ATPase
Amino acid sequence: MRNDAHDELDNIPSLTAGRDRVEPYPAPDLEPIRRTAAEPVDDGRSRQKRRAGGGGGGGGGGGGGGRASSAPLWVMVLALLISLGALGWWSYQKIAMLEMQLVATQESFARISEDAAGRLQDISGKVVATESNVTTESEAVKLRIKQLEQQTVELGRKQQAFATEQQSLAGRQGNQDQRLEEQGKRLERLGNDLQTQQGTTASLAESVKTLGSEQASLKSTLDEQAKLAGRIDSLSKDVATLKQGGNQNQAISRLEQDILVLRSQLDNRPAPSAANTAEFDSFRAQVTRTINAMQSQIANLQGQIDGR
């Protein structure tokens, strides 16, 4: 690659003519002329002598010297022509080879450019397809982002609603806890009341048992009194019949004594009065009402426990 900033421009040859040149042009390097053994060696002195005697020597000698001095020049000219011809032929071959290389290079460049154009078309088509795919994908991504944003907003709303519902549930749970505590206290009170009622019921049951025994004893006493009354009535009837007879005094006296004994026994035995019977009946009704009230309270407590 070119680097014009760092090119060295110091050694640039001058393009002007060398009129002001101080030093003369160097002498050309000429090949030495080969001489044969028959020819005498021509040194500087003999050359000066020939020049000095050339004026008086005649024209024949001058013609022979001119031929001898022009032969090397023709040889040199011929050599130059041959070298120029060889150089021209070599240059022509080189130029032809360079032209062939240039044509091949141009053809290769043309093929490369065609391949590059095809590749560029393929790449451009791929780029267009990629751009279209990217556009569609970006649109799909934008649509997905919008959907996600909508879902996020909806989730936020649901979360807020859930938070409010949770707060309301917490408040309700607190109220229910308070109600449960109150109901627990009420259950404790009812349990205590139930225990007291059970104790009262036990005492009432014992009282009922004692009253039942007393009632049985009273019934037996009443039966005995009824039997005594029956005996008295029968004795009275016997006495009346005996009085009508008028003969059996001893039997009458005996019967009267028996009646007096029975009367005394009946008077001395405590008979149940109407007031005592009414009090017993009221007490029995009160005990029955108390037992029924306790049974209803127990049923209500069982219903509340089943409802929870």
